[in-house]
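[step 3/7] inverse_fold.run input=structure_tokens len=272
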């Protein structure tokens, strides 16, 4: 699609066009991906330290909801952990919105289990079969004789979209899967259930859960950057057209050396 080719130019471009001074009393509204949420929150906190007259409103809800808000013109920035879909581009254009992607970080989607689960590695094929409900017991993949509880993100999530494509190859998730609305909710569910498996963005990893290697490869910065880790993806902030004024200033802050240090600090992978 010609329009998608146009939008892809945003991958390689910083939003330098239209940079201006941040004006006191201005408000930036940011909605969307819970994966991108920690980056947006930490960057906003640091940005406001040197721009005290600016207000930034941030909320999650999933990549799909963020893009929908951009199309509805109820947000200045849509956080997304996936690229915009063709049907979303069409809806946007019908409403006079021209979504421009700004790649701000790289992420690895990490399969997680309870720390007491002895399994340390799964293949992509094994995870696909688990999420389809075709592998039902941990003993089938080298674990204990325990029923597998499948935890997934809901369908509005960009993380779900990437998992659905790269792990499930667009097969359906088993009907009894526990669908969660955020990365944090997945972490909480797995930390309380020794039989469960889930998946989260790298920035949400903590000691309450255990990361699994995929095809024998761990989700590290080096493996994600080299492309050897199989479930890595870029993270985006979308704007309606090339941003101007305070919105452009904020996005360029996220893309700056200071902003990319924040990306690294919150657990994600900087662009450079």
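[step 3/7] decode complete -> sequence:
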């Amino acid at each position: 699609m010609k329009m998608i080719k146009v939008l892809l130019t945003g991958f390689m471009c910083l939003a330098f066009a239209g940079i201006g001074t941040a004006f006191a009393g201005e408000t930036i509204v940011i909605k969307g991906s819970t994966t991108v949420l920690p980056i947006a929150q930490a960057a906003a906190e640091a940005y406001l330290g040197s721009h005290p007259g600016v207000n930034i409103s941030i909320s999650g809800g999933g990549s799909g909801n963020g893009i929908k808000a951009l199309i509805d013109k109820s947000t200045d920035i849509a956080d997304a952990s996936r690229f915009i879909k063709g049907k979303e581009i069409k809806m946007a254009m019908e409403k006079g919105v021209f979504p421009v992607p700004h790649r701000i970080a790289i992420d690895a989607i990490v399969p997680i289990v309870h720390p007491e689960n002895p399994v340390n590695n799964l293949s992509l094929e094994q995870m696909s079969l688990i999420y389809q409900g075709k592998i039902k017991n941990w003993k089938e993949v080298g674990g204990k004789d325990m029923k597998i509880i499948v935890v997934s993100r809901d369908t509005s999530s960009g993380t779900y979209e990437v998992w659905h494509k790269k792990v499930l190859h667009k097969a359906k998730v088993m009907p009894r899967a526990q669908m969660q609305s955020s990365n944090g909710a997945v972490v909480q569910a797995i930390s309380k259930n020794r039989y469960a498996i889930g998946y989260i963005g790298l920035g949400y990893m903590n000691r309450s859960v255990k990361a699994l290697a995929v095809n024998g490869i761990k989700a590290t910065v080096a493996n994600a950057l080299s492309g050897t880790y199989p479930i890595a993806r870029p993270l985006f902030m979308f704007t309606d057209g090339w941003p101007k004024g305070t919105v452009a200033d904020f996005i360029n802050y996220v893309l700056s050396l200071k902003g990319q240090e924040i990306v690294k600090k919150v657990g994600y992978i900087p662009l450079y």
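[step 4/7] annotate
The chain has ten helices and eleven strands.
Residues 1-20 have pLDDT under 50 and may be disordered.
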